[in-house]
Design goal:
Helices cover 82% and strands 0% of the residues. It is mainly α. It folds into 2 domains: 72 residues; 36 residues, no CATH class.
């Protein structure tokens, strides 16, 4: 009978040890599951935020592409038109560069020389 009691006590001890191990494993797995759930929820929030940023970036890209195409298809601005020159301005533009050559021709525009000649003969 003592052997049966010892056998029963040993079985009881093993049962209690296995029960403690089981409870410990259950608690560890519950903590891991809770942590996994928190990580999942955080990743879900991060994923949604990332998706929102992606959608915003895509919308901005579309707007920029559209603006780029519109600008690219637009005619470039025309250069400013020059103000129409007066007749006198045209004459001056042509005559001024020729003055040194013209002054070399005797009798043309020699008014200054005539004055000098007149003063010399008087």
């Amino acid at each position: 009978m003592q052997k049966q009691e010892e056998l029963y006590a040993e079985q009881q001890r093993r049962f209690e040890e296995e029960s403690r191990q089981h409870q410990s494993q259950v608690q560890d797995l519950r903590r891991q599951a809770e942590e996994a759930q928190r990580n999942y929820e955080k990743l879900s929030r991060d994923h949604e935020a990332t998706q929102e940023r992606i959608r915003a970036a895509e919308a901005a890209n579309q707007q920029l592409q559209s603006a780029y195409q519109e600008l690219r298809n637009r005619e470039p601005p025309a250069p400013p038109r020059q103000k129409k020159k007066s007749f006198l301005q045209k004459v001056v533009e042509i005559a001024v560069p020729l003055l040194p050559v013209v002054n070399m021709i005797p009798g043309v525009f020699s008014m200054g020389n005539e004055i000098k000649d007149h003063e010399a003969s008087s």
